[in-house]
Amino acid sequence: MIEQDINDADFKRFQQLIYKIAGISMSDAKKVLLVGRLGKRLKALGLESYGDYYKYVAGGRDAAELQLMVELLTTNETYFFREEKHFEFLADRIVPDHPPGTSLDIWSAAASTGEEIYTLCMVLADTMGINGSWTITGSDINTQVLALARSGHYPMEKARGLPPEYLRKYCLKGVRQHEGTFLIMPELRRHTRFLQVNLNQPLPNLGKFHVIFLRNVMIYFDAETKRQVVDRLTDHLHPGGYFIVGHSESLNGLTERLRAVQPTIYRLP
Prior knowledge:
- The protein is α/β, with parallel strands linked by helices.
- It has two domains: 8-73, Orthogonal Bundle (Chemotaxis Receptor Methyltransferase Cher, domain 1); 85-267, Vaccinia Virus protein VP39 (Rossmann fold, 3-Layer(aba) Sandwich).
- It contains ten helices and ten strands.
- Strand 1, helix 6 (115-128) and strand 2 (134-140) form a beta-alpha-beta unit.
- The mean pLDDT is 93.
């Protein structure tokens, strides 16, 4: 008989585990979410309690199940042209100032299902040319959302926020068995690469970037984790590079390395 609820002690263990792995501070209000998302894993593994499941994932015997737990407990909400002012700043300020003939390299550090990546692609194709010298790196801790992002294949309802002219210009409409979907054009996708990266751990050698987007993810971190993550990412900025956060976020008090250009947009001197 599977337990329908989780006791406070076991919930606290999961809070500590997800914080240790991903830096995510899960509030007590998320208990219902945890039960709803992990209950199916107890059933699949034939376990009777959340305490048993904790011992299973924390015991180090099944790395794939631990990764699945992380993916079930992380939130991935995004859409095309979310917080549009950032893309206007990219087109109006960053691209014109970039030295001609050199590659413009951007990192979307919490790429989720890829809508931010392909919005950036469309803006750069418009301003620098579809065959121009630019790259977009997308990373996320969640392998499932990265697989979707890498495919660039979306149900048509995901086109909300996408200007109709961009849908026509940069996307292929699905036909026959793919009806009701759209695919990002290969000419855009060839400018991208996708990597699994845990921002709460030492980062792999990704190279340097002219712009880093870290939007709508720090709301899940406590102040110390935010400081560490921002410092790690800033190491990957070219001098003069931009660091862009979500409209409900700020780097005030988190770093002295970056200078505010305008709210949510910072620059490495």
